[in-house]
Amino acid sequence: MHIIDRRLNPKGKSLTNRQRFLRRVKAQVRQAVRESSAQRGVQDLEKGGELSIPREGMREPSFRRSSSTGIRSGVLPGNKDFVEGDTIPRPSGGGGRGNEGSPDGGGEDDFRFVLSRDEFIDLFLEDLELPDMIKQRTAASDQMVPLRAGYSVSGSPANLALTRTMRNSMARRLALKRPKSAEIRSLYEEIEALERTGRDPQRLTALRATLADKLRMSRQIPYIDPLDVRYRRFQQVPKPVAQAVMFCLMDVSGSMSESMKDLAKRFFMLLHVFLKRRYERVEVVFIRHTHIAQEVDEDTFFHDPQTGGTVVSTALDEMLKVVRARFPAGDWNIYCAQASDGDNTTSDNRRAAQLLADTILPLCQYYAYIEVGRSDGGPEPFGLGSRDRESDLWRTYRTIADQGGPMVMRQVRHRREIFPVFRELFRRASEGSPTP
Amino acid sequence: MTLTTDDRLLYAGADWNFDTIQRVHDAIERIAVDDMGLDVYPNRIEVITAEQMLDAYASNGMPLYYKHWSFGKHFVQHEMMYRKGMRGLAYEIVINSNPCISYIMEENSTTMQALVIAHAGFGHNHFFKNNYLFRQWTDADAILGYLDFAQKYIADCEEKHGHRAVERVLDAAHALRTHGIFRYPRTKVADLRSEEQRERERHANQERIFNDLWRTVPGGDVQLSSPSSADRRRALLQLPQENILYFLEKTAPRLAGWQRELLRIVRQIAQYFYPQMQTKVMNEGCATYCHHRIMRRLHDDGLISDGAWMEVMHSHTNVIFQPEFDDPRYSGLNPYALGFAIMEDIERICLQPTDEDRAWFPDIAGRNDHMAVLRDVWANYRDESFILQFLSPKVMRDFRLFHIIDDAAQPRIRVDAIHDERGYRRLRRALARQYDVAWLDPDIQVIDVDLDGDRRLRLQHRVLDSITLEEGDAQRVLGHLADLWGYDVMLEEISAENGGKLKEHTASPRHRVI
Fold first, then answer.
1. Which residue in A52, B80, B364, B372 is deepest, having the highest Cβ count within 10 Å?
2. Long-range contacts of residues B191-196, Cβ cutoff 8 Å, at least 24 apart
3. Residues A276 and A346 placed together within one structural domain of the fold
4. % of chain A with per-residue pLDDT over 90
5. Mean per-residue pLDDT, A69-94
6. Residue A136 domain-assigned?
7. Do A14 and B54 touch (CB under 8 A)?
8. Distance between CA atoms of A435 and A410, rounded to whole angstroms?
9. Secondary structure, 3-state, A318-343
10. What mean pLDDT value characterizes chain B?
11. d(CA B153, CA B265)
12. CATH number, domain containing residue A340
């Protein structure tokens, strides 16, 4: 008997089959992913999960005998009180055997299966792209890493490329016909033999002359010439920044209701998931503000009520402070998402706009502004928040966004709008510009 | 092995290592070979993880298999069942090959590993090596090699002709898989080893015959309608033919060489699984009987602890649990339960026969050598004949079996026989018929094709008991068949009793060339 340990064999032998299956039913799966993501909380978004899709396109038909025609017979266990000749009413639903429904598939259950987290997110974020990511991140990085780039004739001994050097040396030796050591050795031996026997002095002289010649050649043509020597060459290339920081800025003054905060939270979560797909490391900084701003942890950010006025520029100041202290722009890709109901102290608008346009936007890869409205859909208490009516902050920001730059802004009023808006903001450039 | 009584146990606790497995295997082998007289292929035991077990599930338990989306579908299905805890994983998978490969899962306890080795490594193994169907139909030495060839060949085709094209052919071939089997042995036993090379030769030859046929058709010759030439035509095409895939592989006019080879691969693999379909009850019964006996013996000899024996019994009773027909858990007769019960009963009949047994089984009742009887049973029967021969009144009573007849024309289901004196024989016949694959699979044959005319392929389903084909599925399979054939296809359903035509399905090819 042999025991073979296969536990370390590569896993995922079914991966190809699984992918083929998903490819085959891609349209249905995509639809199901969208539907299920609308139902589930954004917190659970990343978990992957169970999907149910219609069976069309994945049938494996075969010739089978029908379960509803003709005379069928069966032997069953567990007789209680039947005797021969009894008749039993036919159980509804077609009996125990045969679970196939009508040919159009209406009677069948949907096919249920589990998508992994990665598959789910892939489908979920399909066609989305971070704008201008590659261009900026290489340009903005200061750190350099050495990368192998061919050979050079000079360098430090530690970088000596031995194989390449010996190859050159061998080529040169062959080309210049440097005598091989075996050749010289055999000459020596022959001469020695002739000297010992003393026969054929003529050949001896000839051999000696040849030997002298060869020795001279091997002295003149060195085994390794400085000409042969090569070194591994390294080039300094800028190191791509594989980390990102995401700033979540939110107005938490009294005018922001819980449902508005929930909308904002969903948007932040989507952005977080999205960034995590693209970067090895994603840091999140939560900054809340009223008329003063402070950096807080996630829980406080979303749940701790605050009262006060609304001064947006304080949040921007706080963000700048954090960037300077912990996230130098050269090492980090900076994303910023701001959520607000659009209120701001009128006198602050100019300062906020200036701060954003002059200092923040140049630092950021992307700046998204989400203006949340009431989600209950009922009449607005003060007739505010309708799409036609623009808030102070919206008007202020639009002047900046209109100038171009990595900034987008959208209004969201209901949970179901979050995902479309998000998709709109990040869809591939080929489908249209992400800026409004 | 062991010297002192305290030290006789093969192992202690649930953790195992390769030494333990080896020790357990050797002890089991002694019992299996010396006591029970089993004759097995050498064992190869492979330790795998739960994840790998799921992988193996999806490809019929085979270690290598070509790629197809349907395996992915089964994979995600099993995976979900497993993740949700709706279904555990099998403790083992065993492959009919030489050496016999059994997979065991790493998370099983030592006792479970012992049980699995006894069950698969000796029970199934003996059955594979000795049962006549496996000997006749499968080539245990070459199956892995053939699967390897199939996998590479199909991957090659995908590279050359594209995924979609290959997938279409495989989809169609899979739909006809149940009708790609030779049910009667032909002149030679399958020799998968030389399959590839022989295929080329035979293929070239067939193509020549095929071309001949075309050249014998002078323009506008109408003589072909004469009966003798129609007979000759059918004879040339080897019609009627129940192996539809074989017929397509050899005769379909529009298939390319590689497409024919794909059909052949699907057909060969279906043929390999054909004996397994016919011996579910026996195979599982044999394995269950073996593990039960071996484990009991290990316990009797003091080689495993009482705790381990309890674990064995727990598992064993789970395996042979048979819910009754009105139980929500009921999903047909459990082959483990039925096979085990009949085999246990054979043992009882041999050792302690009653008068009833003497009347029913005169040739084995009271024969003390029950192992010899069982070995003979395992070697020479399949499910249908096994039940027909050995299902005893006692087992029927224990299972409280009853036979119902459900006539769609009648409003109520009728109980035809129960486990009583009058019913035993009818019950047994009815149950045996449930396991007769020839009766379960619809009898569909290619009956005629006029290659000189419209090339419409005609098939016939001989309908038994007025049970026609499932309409939707039949239409879909026929669509696949038409794709492969390249022209229209017609399937008529003929009553086997009176020859009357019940139904007709037709299909046209959907793709220009599949």
1. B364
2. B191/B139, B191/B142, B192/B139, B192/B142, B192/B143, B192/B145, B192/B146, B192/B268, B193/B139, B193/B141, B193/B142, B193/B145, B193/B146, B195/B146, B195/B149, B195/B268, B196/B149
3. yes
4. 10
5. 81
6. no
7. yes
8. 10
9. HHHHHHHHHCCCCCCEEEEEEEECCC
10. 85
11. 9
12. 3.40.50.410
**Would you say residue A410 lies in a domain?**
yes
B430: enclosing H helix or E strand? helix B424-434
Let me know whether A118 and A30 are in one domain. Answer: yes
Question: What residues of chain A lie within 8 A of the CB of B388, using their CB?
Answer: none
B79 vs A contacts (CB less than 8 Å): 113-114
Both structure tokens of B437: 């694959």
Q: In what helix (H) or strand (E) does residue B136 lie, and over which residues does it extend? A: helix B132-137
Please give the helix or strand (H or E) that residue A52 lies within, else none. strand A49-53
Q: Show which of A177, A209, A233 is a domain's final residue.
A: A233
Is A382's pLDDT higher than 50? no
Residues A297 and A173 in one domain: no
- Cβ within 8 Å of B, A 69-128: 69-80, 82-90, 95-96, 100, 102-105, 111-114
Residue A140 maps to a domain: no
Q: Give chain B's length.
A: 514
Chain A positions in Cβ-Cβ contact with residue B80 (cut-off 8 Å): 50, 112-114
| Percentage of chain B modeled with pLDDT above 70 | 90
Least confident of A50-59, B336-345, B404-413, B414-423: A50-59
Residues A265, A378, single domain; the answer is yes
Boundaries of domain holding A205: 157-233
Asked if residue A133 is part of any domain, the answer here is no
Considering the domain architecture, whether residues A310 and A278 belong to the same structural domain is answered as yes
Instruction: Write out pLDDT tens, residues B29-87.
Output: 999 999 899 999 999 998 888 888 888 777 777 778 888 888 888 888 887 777 776 66
Q: Which chain B residue lies closest to A110 (C-alpha atoms)?
A: B77
Two structure tokens written together for B414: 């009728």
Rounding to the nearest 10 degrees, give the CA dihedral for residues B506, B510, B512, B514: -100
Q: How is residue B491 written in tokens?
A: 């399937």
User: Do you find a cis peptide bond into B227, omega within 30 degrees of 0?
Assistant: no
In this structure, are A316 and A411 located in the same domain?
Answer: yes
- Give me the number of domains chain A comprises: 3
For tokens 């309608």, the residue is B225
Rounded Cα gap, residues B14 and B111, in angstroms: 7
If you average pLDDT over residues B178-182, what whole number do you get? Answer: 86
Is residue A99's pLDDT more than 50? Answer: no
Cα distance from B177 to chain A (closest Cα, Å)? 8
- Please check whether residues A258 and A396 belong to one and the same domain: yes
Q: Are residues A198 and A268 in the same domain?
A: no
Lateral strand order in the sheet of B457-463: B443-449, B457-463, B489-495, B501-507
Q: What is the ipTM of this complex?
A: 0.77
Distance CA A116, CA A47 (A): 8
Identify the H or E element spanning B283.
Answer: helix B280-300
Tell me the C-alpha to C-alpha distance, in Å, between residue B111 and each of B92, B223, B279, B304: 13, 75, 27, 8
CB B349 within 8 A of CB B363: no
Task: Give the separation between CA B8 and CA B30, rounded to whole angstroms.
Answer: 15
- Which of A102, A124, A146 represents a domain boundary (last residue)? A124
When mean pLDDT is compared over A128-132, B389-393, B464-468, the highest value belongs to B389-393
Amino acid identity for residue B116 in this structure: V
